[in-house]
């Protein structure tokens, strides 16, 4: 619904932050007011690309602008909480990139600032809005899949050394908080806990195989859930040339397998095999086919940028809030702890 008042939007960090800026620019109920980055060339480029906007190299200065109501935080992961809390304290709502921050303690500071200020805080985990996730989540939550007993999750990606060298923060414990797991596979950690429920324990190992970085480029874990189900979870940025993201969930009444945003298998006991085939026809090509039929299944950052704008306009909670997003950071850090100590890490 388009309204007369448009919510003023700003973005800090112009890497993936450009996707936030573009989404705000194209949004129905928002308007892009300003962007901020430490690198002046990125600001020049943004001015050319986004037209009549303000640019800042100083985040504190940008926060003084009263036209800005929401700020997207898209800087390196290790300073998400610092900037998000600063923005909330300055009276701005925030949309924070994944991971919400690299430690549970830092992430909790965002939640505390949100509660203290009464403002909105959303967190990007855009893969939850991949078209096939909606029917998959519904099939699990409604019990159509029966009792879940097993999941297999594998993020088999590839990143070059140049990728890690760019920006200087990737692959460092202090700013990236980890490697293939905390940066790339955190999306799938989020999906795992969202689909399968609360984690009971993790037993893990990790290593560095093909990069000159501080952190891991491979993790492998056995996850036990409070429900009694189990899952394997692996992450890597060494799988040349960049392979699948397997998300496979098995229940006593059926099985669903996904690769990335593409549905690969949908079989539910007692339901016609043709129904499974119809689901593959609809969701097998990722978001394309499904969104052609259902425009509400728009993917990527635009969904969540529009969501936070509407959350502010209509005074409701964003789709993914800090208490949701903290869960994947807790699991990722438990995987690192188990890998370091060789012990199983149990959750309360
Ligand atoms: N949702 C996704 O799919 C997705 C994809 C990529 C990155 N990310 C996340 O987005 C964040 C940024 O990653 P990236 O790949 O865009 O990194 P990047 O290095 O490409 O961009 C980060 C930008 O932030 C700027 N910056 C750093 N500190 C700043 C400060 N104090 N004030 C203003 N600007 C500052 C840098 O100059 C840089 O231009 C990370 O947390 C990452 O995990 C999410």
Percent of residues in β-strands: 15-25%
Largest sheet: 8 strands, mixed
Radius of gyration: 20 Å
Number of strands: 14
Mean pLDDT: 95
CATH class of the largest domain: Alpha Beta
Give me the strand/helix succession: EHEHEHEHEHEHEHHHEEEEEEHHHHE
CATH homologous superfamily of the largest domain, by name? Answer: Dihydrodipicolinate Reductase, domain 2
The unreliable regions are none
Q: What is the helix tally? A: 13
The number of distinct structural domains comes to 2
State the helical fraction: 25-40%
Can you walk through the features of this model?
With 348 residues, the chain is an alpha/beta fold. The chain has 2 domains: 7-126 and 300-320, 3-Layer(aba) Sandwich (Rossmann fold); 131-297, Dihydrodipicolinate Reductase, domain 2 (2-Layer Sandwich). The chain has 13 helices and 14 strands. The strands form 2 sheets. It has an 8-stranded mixed β-sheet with strand order 13-12-11-7-10-9-8-14. Helix 2 (40-50) links the parallel strand 2 (30-36) and strand 3. The radius of gyration is 20 Å and the shape is globular. The model has no long low-confidence stretch (mean pLDDT 95). Nicotinamide-adenine-dinucleotide is lined by residues 12-16, 36-39, 42, 59, 74-77, 97-98, 124, 126, 167, 183.
Topology at a glance:
Elements: E1 7-12, H1 17-25, E2 30-36, H2 40-50, E3 54-56, H3 59-63, E4 70-73, H4 80-89, E5 93-96, H5 104-117, E6 121-123, H6 133-141, E7 148-156, H7 161-165, H8 180-184, H9 186-196, E8 199-207, E9 218-225, E10 230-236, E11 245-251, E12 254-259, E13 262-268, H10 273-283, H11 287-293, H12 301-313, H13 322-341, E14 345-346
Parallel strand pairs: 1-2, 1-4, 2-3, 4-5, 5-6, 7-10
Antiparallel strand pairs: 7-11, 8-9, 8-14, 9-10, 11-12, 12-13
Helix pairs in contact: 1-12, 4-5, 5-13, 9-13
The structure holds nicotinamide-adenine-dinucleotide (NAD).
Nicotinamide-adenine-dinucleotide binds next to loops.
């Amino acid at each position: 619904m388009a309204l007369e008042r448009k919510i003023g939007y700003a973005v800090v960090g112009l890497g993936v932050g450009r996707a936030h800026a573009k989404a705000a620019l194209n949004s129905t109920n928002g308007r892009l007011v300003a962007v901020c980055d430490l690198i002046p060339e990125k600001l020049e480029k943004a001015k050319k690309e986004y037209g009549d906007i303000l640019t800042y190299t100083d985040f504190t200065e940008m926060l003084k602008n009263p036209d800005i109501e929401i700020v997207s935080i898209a800087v390196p992961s290790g300073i998400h909480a610092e900037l998000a809390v600063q923005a909330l304290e300055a009276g701005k709502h925030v949309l924070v990139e994944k991971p919400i921050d690299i430690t549970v303690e830092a992430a909790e500071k965002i939640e505390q600032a949100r509660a203290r200020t009464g403002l909105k805080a959303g967190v990007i985990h855009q893969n939850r809005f991949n078209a096939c996730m909606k029917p998959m989540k519904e099939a699990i939550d409604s019990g159509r899949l029966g009792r879940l007993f097993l999941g297999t999750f594998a993020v088999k990606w590839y990143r070059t050394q140049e990728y890690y060298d760019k920006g200087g923060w990737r692959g460092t414990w202090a700013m990236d908080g980890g490697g293939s797991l905390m940066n790339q596979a955190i999306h799938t950690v989020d999906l795992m806990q969202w689909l399968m429920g609360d984690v009971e324990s993790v037993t893990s190992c990790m290593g560095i195989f093909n990069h000159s970085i501080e952190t891991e480029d491979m993790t492998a874990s056995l996850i036990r859930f409070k429900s009694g189900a189990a899952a394997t979870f692996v992450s890597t940025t060494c799988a040349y040339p960049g392979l699948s993201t397997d998300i496979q969930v098995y229940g006593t009444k059926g099985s669903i397998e996904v690769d990335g945003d593409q549905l690969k298998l949908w079989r539910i006991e007692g339901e016609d095999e043709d129904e499974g085939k119809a689901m593959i026809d609809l969701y097998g090509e990722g978001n394309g086919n499904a969104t052609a039929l259902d425009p509400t299944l728009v993917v990527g950052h635009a969904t969540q940028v529009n969501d936070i704008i509407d959350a502010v306009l209509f005074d409701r909670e964003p789709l993914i809030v800090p208490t949701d997003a903290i869960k994947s950071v807790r699991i990722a850090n438990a995987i690192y702890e188990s890998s370091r100590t060789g012990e199983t890490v149990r959750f309360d």
